[in-house]
Amino acid sequence: PPSAAPVTRALAGAPPRTPDNPISLARIETILGRGAGAFGLLFALQSLQVISGQLDAMRPAWSIAFLIVFFGSLVWTCVAGVIRRGVVPAHATVALVFVLALATWPFAIVPEALATVPQPFLYQELTVATTCAAMAFRLWIAVIYTGAVPLGLGFLEVVLRHGVITPLDSFLQVLYSIILGGSVLMIVTVLRQAALGVDWAQGTALTRYSHAVRQHATEVERVQVDAIVHDSVLTTLLSAARTVDPAARTLAATMAANAMGHLAAAEQGTDDDAS
């Protein structure tokens, strides 16, 4: 019968069949990895128009290196999400490349263009970088990244473009970026924690179920063994009562005593296994 299948699998040492399409941490990580990779690449491609409008204000070598490495890393995140290999290193690379670009941006921009360039295009990629940090790093590192990197970009912009942009305008833009990055980080964290809870609950339920199945099988086997041993003892005692030969009667009594000893040992061993 169908209900006997889990018992048979448990007795054979195989784990019970898990439900179809379970909500697990591995499945959530796959969905998050693919979604973050696709979102990052599409969002970055959308900002190409802004980037192309500021290329004249940047040094060519820096611009070429940034475009190749940053967008190449984003393509890597998409491929890693599809094949489910190297998702964390791919997203970590994007986050670190953005930090490197931020650190070298003051040296890459042409000084004459500081007053004419509108908002730096790095703001367009900031949300992508914080999303990748949420995917790749531990929670406390991702929190620091989400707060420190936007603040660093705002500080550099105020220092380099002093008189062109006010600290208040820069702070508002930084605050907006932190809110976006924090929202993504919160969603990723909540989904991961929920999936961990489901995994723990499912694992606990399967462990308890397997233990109950083993106890049931042990109890059934114990009843069968008890019945066999009791029949053996009863048969031996009846044989001893019917015989007239003292030697045969002594032998039958010894056999009955041995059978009862085996029964007591089996019961004690079963109790130890159950505990």
From TrEMBL:
TM spans (from-to): 61-83, 95-117, 137-159, 171-191
Protein keywords: Kinase, Membrane, Transferase, Transmembrane, Transmembrane helix
Keyword Acetylation: no
Presence of keyword Membrane: yes
GO molecular function terms noted in the UniProt entry: kinase activity
Record-given protein name: Histidine kinase
Lineage: Bacteria, Bacillati, Actinomycetota, Actinomycetes, Micrococcales
